[in-house]
Design brief:
globular, transmembrane, three-stranded antiparallel sheet, 478 residues, transmembrane helix, 2% strand, membrane
């Protein structure tokens, strides 16, 4: 499989290195990404006007790709704010406090619940369901929102999505490309997913616990109410303390509060049942949750505000969308650049790549695979690196077919092919599916009210350590 690399590939790679370097220094990358888009646009169109217009076009492309995520986050936040202001959320989560009574239980509880829900419905709708219900409880018992976001990320977008044992979208793509039965890839991936998940989640928890035990208070901004709060170390019995005046409460009869507190979880439970019965996945599942959240918002607003209910409903929606676009604003320029590594460059710049190209990122992955000798040890390392590179577009799924085909080239025997295929699949999805690429992990970051870049930074060491150990295990399994 020979791929011709052109200047576009090298320029894109150079800007990736530059962006990563800037991120490591914790500086903003917007200007670098815009410069990268302009440079690629100029190379693709050979005109200054095409280069400049490509900036806006790429922003529009990124916004369209992210729009469904922006909407579900905005609507969930709008719904959550009306629940907070009416006190319904306190009544709704009170029973859970009996079980989630410490930061440790909150971290592992949120993680395992997220993993189970994600296995059936994929992580995007699972984030909205789990975050809206369990985040307030977790914060109340002392787990910082960044800890909840890490748990949802690693268990949902990491463990559940990389195995994908129920929906089987990922293993089918890689198995078909490698010419293997789906069951063989899924079977081979089980020990690797277990190792990857165990190492990454335990490492992340150890780092989080060490930070919380240091005695320093973790300051944060509640994602729903907007209040500044301080989460005390787990040794303290105190609940989060508000440093700002409490949000304005809207009075509601206790009986009505209890009724909504019962009905709302039941409605989301019905959503889960419908997803299962109607086989709703991905965008369809997210749409069902979003529509339910809008109906809840309307019902609670009318019940709480009565005559001004219609106007207040609109105000809550405005607050939600303000929050959503504020969170996504800095991400769109970065996502716009990285989308050029996949299908966007063909759509925006009239296919400037050579014939046979699979996109800039995938071409780079194939070129990397062609530079190393064919043996099992080097093959396993190469599959991990190749999978990670193909995941850098933030999709996780766009490059796994390529990973499957490369794995078939490196496989020295029929037994090693499924292991290499599943290893590349795990690397691609863990990197690109929503644990390391900031614009891919926005749902969890937005629901928890934390920076996606900070979340990516916190995930970096656990995920890299997990990939290293998983690669070593794969070498012994081959």
């Amino acid at each position: 499989m020979n791929i011709q690399l052109v200047p576009l590939h090298y320029v894109y790679l150079a800007f990736i290195v530059l962006i990563i370097a800037v991120m490591v220094r914790r500086r903003d990358t917007t200007i670098i990404c815009v410069a990268g888009i302009m440079t690629i646009g100029f190379l693709a169109t050979e005109t200054l006007s095409g280069s400049v217009s490509g900036i806006f076009s790429s922003f529009i492309y990124a916004a369209k790709e992210l729009l469904s995520t922006i909407f579900i986050i905005s609507i969930i936040v709008a719904m959550s704010r009306v629940l907070i202001r009416t006190g319904i959320n306190e009544v709704m989560v009170k029973p859970l406090t009996r079980f989630i009574h410490s930061p440790q239980v909150a971290y592992w509880g949120i993680g395992f619940i997220m993993m189970i829900v994600s296995l059936f419905f994929w992580p995007s709708p699972a984030v909205a369901l789990v975050g809206a219900v369990l985040l307030p409880v977790a914060v109340r018992v002392g787990l910082p929102p960044i800890g909840a976001a890490i748990a949802m990320n690693l268990f949902g977008h990491g463990i559940a999505l990389s195995g994908d044992y129920i929906i089987q979208g990922a293993p089918k793509l890689t198995a078909d490309a490698a010419g293997l039965p789906v069951t063989s890839v899924m079977t081979a991936s089980i020990p690797l997913v277990i190792v990857m998940g165990t190492v990454s989640t335990v490492t992340a928890f150890w780092m989080l616990r060490k930070e919380m035990k240091s005695g320093s208070h973790v300051k944060l901004s509640d994602p729903i109410s907007g209040e500044a709060v301080t989460v005390l170390p787990p040794s303290s019995d105190s609940a989060p303390i508000s440093e700002e005046p409490a949000v304005q409460r809207q009075s509601m009869p206790a009986r009505l509060q209890k009724a909504f507190a019962l009905i709302i979880p039941l409605l989301f439970l019905v959503d889960v049942i419908l997803m299962f019965l109607l086989n709703l996945q991905g965008g369809d599942a997210t749409a069902l949750i979003g529509g339910t959240a809008v109906l809840i918002l309307i019902a609670v607003s009318l019940a709480a505000h009565r005559h001004t209910g219609p106007e207040e409903t609109t105000n809550y929606l405005i607050e939600g969308f303000q929050f959503g676009f504020k969170v996504f604003g800095p991400v769109i320029p970065i996502a716009a650049f990285f989308y050029l590594g996949d299908a966007a460059i063909t759509e925006l710049f009239n296919n400037p790549l050579p014939a046979g190209s699979h996109g800039i990122v995938n071409d780079l992955g194939v070129a990397l695979a062609g530079l190393v000798p064919l043996n099992n040890t080097v093959g396993a390392i190469t599959m991990t690196v190749t999978g990670a590179v193909t995941g850098m577009d933030g999709s996780g799924f766009s490059g796994i077919s390529l990973v499957g085909s490369i794995a078939s080239m490196f496989a020295g025997s029929a037994d090693s092919a499924p292991v290499l295929t599943s290893l590349g699949q795990i690397a691609a999805i863990w990197v690109g599916g929503g644990t390391l690429i900031p614009w891919a992990l926005i749902p969890a970051a937005a629901i928890c009210g934390v920076s996606p870049f900070e979340l990516a930074r916190r995930n970096l060491k656990p995920v890299l350590l997990g990939l290293t150990v998983t690669t070593i295990v794969a070498i012994f399994l081959i």
